[in-house]
Design brief:
The chain is an alpha/beta fold. Helices cover 32% and strands 14% of the residues. The longest helix is centred in the middle third of the chain and has 15 residues, at 229-243.
């Protein structure tokens, strides 16, 4: 079935969103509401579920939209987003773009390396962009609450946005989740339940069906996710356009799990090109943990999605075992590549970033680690390149972390301690 396009409420809220469109067959459009949480309902049955995206009346975008400087809150970009609920706004976005020659030297890159620091969002990760849009959908559909499965960043962000909107929130996490994260989620009033990892998604479905909650995480075997979520990630591309004074980077290196962030940034650049604001779309580089990497596996097998074994990795936020069609599209259609990085490479990049004043979780350093790996293997990327740094390093802390040991306050003891740490 192909439904007619829906214009319900879009104009009154300033949104130019008109429908949901199949990523498998862009000729198929569905009403904008409700969000199609299981992907394209008319896609062929099979091992891959195909997501939908939001389609806009791009021709009606006001020219002034890209003439102002960045400011916090995604409302600035409302014409190119699904209808937002101001009640769920936490001031997301307008994150800094930082240049450092030290990181270019670390990566061996003969050009400019810029870091888009998403740890400056309200709950210290890029997930705030997704949840500003997805929790708005929960408000719009009068859901009883919000539910998600998460290893950390997404759950904390969902909980914060739900709290802001006055909605109850349930987060299913797992025993492997880093120690600070359940407390972080619960601080916003969310009910946080640790369950076996494989059971999380089925339980999300139960809460949706039994309690009428709105899911802001994935419900399908191959990843389709929330259809509105990547729309929030597009705003990174819009901000980069502002911050680079209209230039396009040569490449954007993205820590990649399910591929939503990768796809969203790519889509933002596609829209900028459609609007005539840029001539070229940057190459999208997916940076995955070497122990897993479902997107790289799908690309090597020429498949639309893949599933890989759950081999050990400390990159919790991007250590997914299943991928989705969005990531395949973004990489292949931008002449990009997927690069696999070992945990040791992530650790080295994390240290380099911290010594440049940017403390990221291990997953958040994947872009820089991926750049270093590509340069070492002879890949040529045009300058500047942008590494998306996704989240604060405090999220990697675990129960073994201890505070600093107290020393004697006399100068010889202090001097000896400083010398031991390479300072004196």
């Amino acid at each position: 079935m192909t439904a007619t396009r829906s214009h319900v409420g879009a104009a009154s809220l300033g949104s130019l969103a008109r429908s949901q469109r199949s990523l498998l067959d862009p000729a198929r459009h569905y009403p904008l509401w409700p969000p199609l949480l299981h992907g394209d309902p008319d896609a062929p049955d099979g091992p891959v579920q195909y997501p939908v995206e939001v389609y806009y009346d791009v021709a009606a975008v006001p020219p002034s939209l890209f003439e102002r400087g960045s400011e916090p809150g995604l409302g600035r970009w409302q014409p190119l987003l699904p209808p937002l609920a101001p009640i769920a706004d936490l001031g997301t976005g307008a994150t800094p773009l930082l240049a450092t020659a030290r990181l270019a030297e670390f990566a061996g890159f003969d050009g400019d390396v810029l870091v888009k620091d998403e740890s400056q969002n309200p709950t210290w990760s890029h997930k705030d962009r997704l949840n500003a849009v997805a929790v708005s959908a929960a408000v719009r559909t009068r859901a009883a609450g919000v539910v998600a499965a998460s290893s950390g960043n997404h759950g904390a962000s969902a909980a914060a946005h739900a709290a802001r909107a006055g909605l109850p929130c349930v987060i299913f996490t797992s025993a492997e989740t880093p120690a600070p994260m359940p407390a972080f989620m619960a601080a916003y009033g969310a009910a946080v339940l640790a369950v076996p990892r494989a059971a999380r998604w089925a339980l999300v479905n139960e809460v949706v069906e039994r309690l009428g909650f709105h899911p802001v995480s994935n419900l399908t075997a191959s990843h389709t996710g929330h259809p509105y979520g990547p729309e929030g990630y597009k705003t990174i591309a819009y901000e980069l356009h502002d911050q680079l004074a209209g230039r396009s980077p040569g490449a954007v290196l993205v820590p990649t799990g399910y591929g939503e962030l990768l796809f969203g940034v790519w889509k933002g650049f596609l829209e900028l090109r459609e609007l005539g604001l840029i001539d070229t779309v940057p190459r999208m580089i997916a940076c995955e943990p070497q122990a897993r990497g479902p997107l790289g596996a799908a690309l090597r097998a020429r498949q639309d999605a893949a599933e890989v074994p759950a081999r050990p990795t400390r990159a919790h936020s991007i250590g997914t075992t299943s991928g989705g069609y969005r990531g395949v599209l973004a990489v292949t259609r931008s002449d990009g590549v997927a690069v696999a990085v070992a945990d040791t490479e992530l650790e080295a990049a994390q240290r380099a970033m911290a010594h440049a004043g940017l403390w990221q979780e291990l997953s958040g350093a994947a872009g820089l680690a991926g750049l270093r790996s590509l340069v070492a293997s002879g890949h040529v990327l045009e300058s500047p390149v942008v590494c998306i740094a996704t989240s604060s390093g405090f999220k990697d802390l675990d129960a073994s972390t201890r505070s600093a040991a107290e020393i004697s306050p006399d100068w010889p003891s202090v001097h000896a301690a400083l010398a031991a740490q390479g300072v004196a």
